[in-house]
Write a structure and sequence with these properties.
The chain is an alpha/beta fold. Among the domains are: 131 residues, Rossmann fold (3-Layer(aba) Sandwich), CATH 3.40.50; 37 residues, no CATH class. The protein is 32% helix and 15% strand. A 6-stranded mixed β-sheet has the order 1-2-4-3-5-6, with helices on both faces.
Length: 257
């Protein structure tokens, strides 16, 4: 059964939705960005219905300044109290709960990473945490990626290469866990005979004599070093006319006789 509820947070009223179930482990869904608790394309509402149908209660809420909740929206960095009060309200609404698992996507996952320790939460499910913030120059781009050759050349452990950047270390850990190719594998991998043959054919220079209109470049003079002009082509010799055949002579004599 699904029902609406609300709770208080820093003098503001936050709207929430509870999908009831008999289980003792509940799911707390924390929305990311400016997304309301229903989720994009009703995604969080459908997720809550599926989890509740499997026997686990689900609690969703709008943080301050978002959706049906009052207050001012101050981004995910100011949601520590929202998360703590939402988890406490979840336990009040479902007294049989013994364990709360919190789920967050994007900056909601980042908020849970930062603030879960101060809330009555037992476990986390995080997807796509937001890890990049604009610097002093306003640049919010991640550092440029390094090739496998640069990583293997600078250090044996990728964590040492990217210790200065959390977002870069996250990306390297994923690439190390599921590598497409080991470092320098493209340069060390022996090519198959078929691939080598095709590569040789594609790189083989075309012969100048293969074209009927190709001309030989003039050779330099051994004295001046300058290119000597090519000699003019020899004039074509006309072929002698073919002698008359006996049949043609007989026809001529017949015609005149």
């Amino acid at each position: 059964m699904r029902r609406l509820t609300h709770f208080q947070c820093a003098g503001e009223t936050l709207a929430a939705t509870l999908d009831e179930a008999a289980g003792t482990t509940g799911l707390l869904i924390v929305s990311g960005g400016n997304e309301i608790r229903i989720g994009a394309h009703r995604g969080m509402a459908e997720l809550g219905a599926i989890i509740a149908a499997s026997g686990h209660p689900v609690f969703r809420y709008d943080r301050r300044g978002i959706g049906d909740s009052s207050g001012e929206n101050n981004s995910f960095e100011s949601t520590a109290q929202d998360i703590c009060e939402a988890a406490a309200a979840f336990r009040r609404e479902v007294p049989q709960l013994t364990r709360i698992v919190a789920f967050g996507n994007c900056d909601a996952a980042s908020a849970l990473i930062l603030f879960h320790a101060g809330a009555p939460i037992d476990a986390l499910i995080l997807t796509n945490p937001w890890t990049i913030e604009p610097g002093a120059d306003g640049n919010d781009l991640p550092p440029p990626p390094q090739s496998d050759h640069a990583i293997s050349k600078s250090s044996k452990t990728p964590a040492n290469c990217f210790a200065c950047s959390p977002e870069a270390s996250i990306s390297v850990n994923f690439s190390v866990a599921w590598p497409r190719h080991p470092p320098n594998s493209l340069s060390r991998r022996p090519a198959s005979p078929r691939a080598s043959r095709h590569r040789w054919r594609s790189q083989k220079p075309r012969s100048r004599s293969s074209s009927p209109n190709a001309t030989t470049p003039p050779s330099p003079s051994p004295i001046t070093g300058r290119a000597q002009p090519s000699p003019p082509p020899a004039p074509a010799t006309p072929s002698p006319p073919a002698p008359p055949t006996a049949t043609a002579s007989r026809d001529r004599r017949t015609r005149h006789g």
